[in-house]
């Protein structure tokens, strides 16, 4: 059965609650010296005990609240859905910032429909991203607009009104593998002279929310996984932006470009070239 307004509100509320709860955990229990628990694709692609604990909290809470729903989490969480909804979660987005105590990391929680293992075969219906250090909670549900909550204050989000790429502040990021980073920097080299400046904040989820809030004019990155972008994509589109991939394809691992339509069009022309 299609999701009605009440279902979407429920999913959005749960996304907000779980992101907030996991965010509280990673801040309140952050050890003074964060240890690397393991490395993944490269020696600098790290996972800490708190990434694992945050994902475990999200997994347990979803099991209690939404036992029929599926799960896809960065730290291995995986469960088939029998309801049609799959939660796609990044328990700490910006782990390197977390390691260094740079206050730009997030928890990202998204309720998605479709096959989350196939690029372009799923979309997000509700999602939340929290920066637990600043307390900023970004959230959206399909058709409901995108919002930023800070304590009691609720702000409707809109992407930037900038239309000129040359005057745009651009966000991007890099993967962990050395060869990929070299390729990514050659794309940056082609673009850096065409924009106002670039920012590499270190959390893809916060980058997308920054686009939704007009704090970045436009953003692109390649190599992102579903958990990095699932909530942020919806937050951008509900803030009036567009999100797309390479050569107009849906956003995915290959590429995500997000921002106001005219900037995305002009940036895509540079990247696709
Ligand atoms: C990373 C961050 C970073 C982006 C990387 C991601 P993680 O996620 O979002 O900003 O550039 O591509 O892998 O590993 O900190 O969850
Ligand atoms: Ca990671
Ligand atoms: Ca991530
Ligand atoms: Ca992560």
From TrEMBL:
InterPro entries (alphabetical):
IMPase, Inositol_monoP_metal-BS, Inositol_monophosphatase-like, Inositol_monophosphatase_CS
Presence of keyword Hydrolase: yes
Question: What processes in GO biological process is this protein linked to?
Answer: inositol metabolic process; phosphatidylinositol phosphate biosynthetic process; signal transduction
**E.C. numbers:** 3.1.3.25
Arranged from A to Z, the UniProt key words for this protein are: Hydrolase, Magnesium, Metal-binding
* Any Pfam family the entry gives: Inositol_P
The reaction(s) catalysed by this protein are: a myo-inositol phosphate + H2O = myo-inositol + phosphate
Q: Name one GO molecular function term.
A: inositol monophosphate 1-phosphatase activity
What cofactors are annotated for this protein?
Mg(2+)
Domain of life, per lineage: Bacteria
Read off the PROSITE patterns from this record: IMP_1 (PS00629), IMP_2 (PS00630)
| Chain sites annotated for binding Mg(2+) | 74, 90, 92-93, 228
Family that this chain belongs to? Belongs to the inositol monophosphatase superfamily.
Identify the PANTHER family for this entry. INOSITOL MONOPHOSPHATASE (PTHR20854), INOSITOL-1-MONOPHOSPHATASE-RELATED (PTHR20854:SF4)
Name this polypeptide is given: Inositol-1-monophosphatase
* Annotated organism of origin: Rudaeicoccus suwonensis
């Amino acid at each position: 059965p299609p999701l009605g307004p009440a279902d979407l509100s429920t999913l959005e509320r749960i996304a907000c609650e779980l992101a907030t709860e996991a965010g509280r955990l990673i801040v309140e229990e952050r050890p003074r010296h964060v240890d690397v628990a393991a490395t993944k694709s490269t020696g600098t692609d790290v996972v800490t005990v708190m990434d694992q604990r945050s994902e475990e909290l999200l997994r347990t809470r979803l099991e209690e609240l939404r036992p029929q729903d599926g799960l896809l989490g960065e730290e291995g969480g995986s469960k088939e859905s029998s309801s049609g909804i799959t939660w796609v979660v990044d328990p700490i987005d910006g782990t390197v910032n977390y390691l260094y105590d740079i206050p730009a990391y997030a928890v990202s929680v998204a309720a998605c429909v479709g096959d989350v293992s196939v690029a372009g075969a799923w979309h997000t219906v509700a999602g939340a991203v929290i920066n637990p250090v600043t307390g900023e909670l970004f959230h959206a549900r399909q058709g409901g607009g995108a919002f930023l909550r800070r304590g009691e204050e609720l702000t409707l989000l809109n992407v930037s009104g900038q239309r000129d790429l040359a005057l745009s502040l651009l966000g991007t990021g890099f993967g962990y593998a050395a060869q990929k980073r070299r390729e990514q920097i050659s794309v940056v080299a082609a673009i850096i002279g065409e924009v106002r400046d670039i920012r590499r904040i270190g959390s893809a989820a916060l980058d997308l929310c920054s686009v939704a809030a007009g704090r970045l004019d436009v953003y692109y990155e390649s190599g992102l996984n579903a958990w990095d972008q699932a909530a942020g994509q919806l937050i951008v589109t509900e803030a009036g932006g567009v999100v797309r991939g390479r050569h107009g394809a849906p956003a995915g691992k290959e590429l995500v470009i997000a921002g106001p339509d005219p900037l995305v069009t002009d940036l895509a022309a540079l990247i696709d070239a």
